């Protein structure tokens, strides 16, 4: 099948191109970039100098002729304009931005922009592959999750579902490599400002907060309130969340580990780390794996959940392709069998 | 006055040598290293090739002839052997290890070693300069704090004292550059294992936990239970703690900031960051500053405290010299007026 | 076909496992490690926790039952012991170490060890795929090149062949990420010793010097003398060589570029960068590409050749698999079609 | 004495502020920034939040009232406008940009801008402290050297002076951390574009080339032709040059080392590394040291000179203060006695 990418010059798109170019059932035909239309792909991405793609302008109507599947790697606010027309023409849309992740009023409040209509929101499935596969398989609009919510929900949902964790008071401390900030050109993103530096940002105000709460509630079955503090870590890729909350009485660590092991028994991309192990970002780098771990602290009656992903793969392009595989009925791992790079 | 360092080949010692060599009132006379005795300092530290020091073996008796002040930068378990004799001979000891930080039974439990006697523990002061200055000024044994406790207590103590934070349930998420792990030679500390990697370690079990709880209780005035998760971040220096706990009713963010500003009004090394600012490790790098910030989340009724230090300066050698200054009645900033290096 | 790796716990082996596990014609059956025999692979490489391999002891006799192809990722001196028996049993050996790269007396001088016999040396082909393919296709012992020689020869050989560069006086300035130093545990390889550091090592004495000279002579057709200075750069992967020499009269930059373009017209893994471009290590990271560029300085009559590779892929495991593909008559790119990771 | 900085928001200026604030004989009174006039210093540099400076607009006339000494850390082209008026009013100017380094026609050719008049060029001294001290002591305009020329000339000059190296054909391979590129905001300077990346730039065309040639000629006593290739290395600070050239007959390594040792016998900031040592950038980080080393390769008749500096200290702000000290007759090391930071 033919695929296109809208918003082709960011880091998420570089990963989509890498993955789709080696996907057994997909041909990448079209790259749309409003800001660089007319340029060659290799000008934006010299590491892809062996490829011959021109960056194009486009619109939903003409794009439908070139692609069966459209990935949106553009900023939030673009996909909501293109998706209705594409889906009405029978195309499948996978959106890496936030447009279709929240209900309309929450989107307005946190993103300060106009959401898609309620009808189109109702057509979309949330693309956290491991927990929303049934609706993903049927949807023509898939709202790929944010990078932090992907990691956080992977530990939160099973703990909430079993009542191990009380959703009333969840603290999520996130740490991300710098590619999560995208490729936009700002003084605060210069190498010398980030290298050998570590700091929190948007404390309590990051837009991924309502996304975590919404899907923790839906899939975890508990109304959940999250305090989320993200932090920038001086590395390119990799994201770790550490999730804290009061543990319900009676649970032991082996029991809690068993809950995780069962939850992900059938999931090819989730690895529950060994009892004396912790998730490490380098252990998943370049792959679609999510490594999860858990610790139960008797002293403070707290459960600590940990999850590590590559923010550009399982946190973006990789999960988008995993969702495509689910939607098309292809093997879930098609195009995603590369191992982590180490070191 | 003459100073000596016991355990002279680690990273903390490199900082002590850097600071003491430019201290207006101190002459560094003697460097003790049991493992490298007989070698020249420049073999251990080529960056100090302009200095002429030999690394010596030593014992408390002979050392008292050469030094009025002895810094211990050796592993835990060494200072407790040397301190009694040195102090009986009228010397001042500043210990960067953990021997004198805890009561005996807690030390035994967390450090699996023999603590100093209760008598000698009673002679020591805890060297968190900003909060324990009165006892530091009188003590001949100063237990320099651990790096994580230094940062964590700097936000915890004022919040606990004012009852803003409930000590029953404090979560501390710590992140540290790799120099905190010292210079010992292990596969897991190799460049390629750490670079572009990020991971938690000793979750819930780190030895700094009881130290935080003890001094939060003493100086904060509340019995405090801490869950502490440290994480390794791929950089040399810098440490950030993010402290979470339920906020007491009625407090507003401006009020909480005011509490911090008042607490540190007279402290030359603590900077409360602006309302829209966050502490950043690079903002203190190479200096004895501790930058602190706070956020109050109405949604989740949580207070978030943040503190950044250079783990080798305010978290080790710098605070040790600050304590020496307090003890000797010298200006608190003597030898410590260097600014952060940026970038 | 079944493959084995001898020396399975180093970084080169991690890459071999990554590549071979997704190779369409190879099954990796056996991992030999003398130092960790009996352990599970995931103990050495937690990032491969989804694989079930035990690390085995072994000997050439029993190994021949399990593998048609044997890769040696062990230190120099091992393969020379195993190869004769394996080849006599009809197996194909690809050696990532230096045993089979040099003539016996040069090996003795630079490696201070015993080389294979002249007979066995005569059975081997040098595995610089782009320049020695005819002999690689027929050999049962393939001496995979060193990482620096791979990059250096890729620019040297075409320039020497055309007489653009005078082999009498070639300066090669090499820079490599730290994975080139392997995984052995030394103080000088600790994260804090390498991060934010840059330095030359083994100036004029690096063992890759005679390898460069030998194969520049054979494939470039000129007796060549090389001064080689390698430098460590604080990054995991990536290797750049900058090659300098006096340019022969009459050549212009477009002509020299044309020589490179023609030399690599048919090579799927060599990309000659555009006229205003330079090779960058990140542009090849994780891939088997070698990016080459050239500059001709009129002022100083010097030609500057540049080549960038991923030292663990084209500089080690990737080229080893490329050589296997050549040897077996498979498509040269089988298993090696992954794109560079960016960023 | 009172000092001012023109161009106060770049990385070189941050170092000047750090050094001058602890200088025993200087008071920093005025910070000029055309682009950020009206802002507080702490907005540009949050790491200096404890300082109270406003960034000002200014002109040479009013500035002369506030400062006896003016440092220019602005881009090339600014100081030539300000210096004449300031010097006529009796002020001392130290220029970290290139305006006063070259003769007029060379400046025009390489910098594409208008140089100062020949009269004003004739008033200036080149500020390579170790080799031009006599003229620095008398000049009211000091042209602080570029970072690469500082390191390169420190090995080149003594080798040329003694005829060890033939100036006809010198290759200089430079490597620099990213702070050398300044703080200007470009996509190619983003963290993710530089981290884990290594590449040459401006091959054969870097503006420091004629500066190296000019002062190698003047102080080395030989007309010198340089081919210079700089490379970006993923670290904040640190610069290494590796200098190659044909060695004259008859020299041995011990003799060549002796030449260096004698050349720098009296220089407090130049350390000739031990025979088995190499200069390392981390060994000088944060200090005004320049570490130099040399190797003589019998096989290829080549001499290899190496020099490491902190590009922002000895390569910029530190040497500027060293020059001020020389000019004022203060101790050469005043304000510059800080040791390297390690690690």
UniProtKB/TrEMBL annotation, chains A, B, C, D:
It comes from the Bacteria. One of its GO terms (cellular component) is cytoplasm. Residues 2-139 form the Semialdehyde dehydrogenase NAD-binding domain. Its EC number is 1.2.1.38. GO terms for biological process: L-arginine biosynthetic process. The active site is at residue 147. SMART domains: Semialdhyde_dh (SM00859). Keywords: Amino-acid biosynthesis, Arginine biosynthesis, Cytoplasm, NADP, Oxidoreductase. InterPro entries: AGPR (IPR050085), AGPR_dimerisation_dom (IPR058924), AGPR_type-1 (IPR000706), NAD(P)-bd_dom_sf (IPR036291), Semialdehyde_DH_NAD-bd (IPR000534). Its main location: cytoplasm. Pathway: Amino-acid biosynthesis; L-arginine biosynthesis; N(2)-acetyl-L-ornithine from L-glutamate: step 3/4. It is found in: Cytoplasm. GO terms for molecular function: N-acetyl-gamma-glutamyl-phosphate reductase activity; NAD binding; NADP+ binding. It catalyses: N-acetyl-L-glutamate 5-semialdehyde + phosphate + NADP(+) = N-acetyl-L-glutamyl 5-phosphate + NADPH + H(+). Belongs to the NAGSA dehydrogenase family. Type 1 subfamily. Catalyzes the NADPH-dependent reduction of N-acetyl-5-glutamyl phosphate to yield N-acetyl-L-glutamate 5-semialdehyde. PANTHER family: N-ACETYL-GAMMA-GLUTAMYL-PHOSPHATE REDUCTASE, CHLOROPLASTIC-RELATED, N-ACETYL-GAMMA-GLUTAMYL-PHOSPHATE REDUCTASE, CHLOROPLASTIC-RELATED-RELATED. This is N-acetyl-gamma-glutamyl-phosphate reductase. It comes from Melghirimyces algeriensis. The gene is argC.
